[in-house]
Amino acid sequence: MGIPVEIPGLDTLIPELEEGKIVVVESGADPAKSFFVRRMCITAMHRGWPVTFITSRDEGEVKQLFSAESPPSMEPPVEPLILERDEVNDLPEFGGRGGLVAVDSFSFLTLGLDAPLLAEMMRNLRAQCRGKSTTVILGTDRGMFEPRAEAVTSHLSDGMLQFHAREGPEGLNRFLRIPKWMGGRFVDRNVYYDFDGRRLVIDLRQRVI
Question: Does residue 104 contact residue 55 with C-beta atoms inside 8 Å?
C-alpha cells in the first residue's frame, strides 16, 4: 500500500507513490514543488506513517507550513521528524526508518558530492528502501545540479515529476510533465496546473504548448 496522490486530476495519472520507491520532484522557482512534497508528507502522516522531512530551511517555518496546509477536517497528524541540514552525505541511514522520507532541497544539500559518490549513496538508498518499504521523495531545483549529478539522480530514481512555469503571450504558463514513472509509464505531454499558494489544481482538458 503506497501513499495516495489526493490531488484531483493528478491522481488519474499517478494514483499513488509506491512503497520502497524513490521519486524525484523537480521545478524551477515555482513553489508548487515544495507544496506537493509537503502535501504527500501530510497525507502519509494522517495515515499513521512515520515521516522524516529533511530540509535546508528553518524547522519552525516548516512546522508552520505543515500546520497551515493540513486539512482542518482531519485528525491531528503524526508528528514528523524534521531535520535541518546544510548538507547530506548519507541518506541511507534514513531509508531504514520505513514510512516516508522527504528531502525538500536535495540538489542543494548534495552540492558537494561528486557524481560517483552521489551514485553510491543513491544505490545504497535504493537497497534500504526496498528492504524496509520506505518511500522517498527528493525535491530538486532545476539548474542547480551539474549535468552528471542530474543524470545520476534521474537514472537511479523510480519516478520523476517536473513542474514547469514559463512566460507566454498571455502570461505565465504552468505545466507538469512525468518523463519517468514506475512500471515504465510516463506522460509525454504538458499537463496544465495552477497553484495559488494553498491549492494545486490540475486540468487535464487544457493543452499547454
Answer: yes
pLDDT digits (tens, 9 = 90+) for 135-148: 999 999 998 988 99
CA distances from 203 to 10, 135, 165, 182, 208 (A): 9, 27, 15, 22, 10
pLDDT, tens only, 14-43: 999 999 999 999 998 788 999 999 999 999
Q: Which residues contact 55 (CB under 8 A, 6 or more apart)?
A: 62, 82, 83, 84, 85, 103, 104, 105
Of 137, 126, 120, whose CA–CA distance to 20 is shortest?
Answer: 126
**Is pTM, for the whole model, over 0.85?**
yes
Residues in the chain: 209
| CA dist., res. 59 & res. 69, Å (int) | 15
- Residue 68 binned pLDDT confidence (cut-offs 50, 70, 90): confident
Q: What is the DSSP string of 40-69?
A: HHHHHHHTT--EEEEESS-HHHHHHHHHHH
Q: Domains of the chain by range and CATH?
A: 24-207 (3.40.50.300)
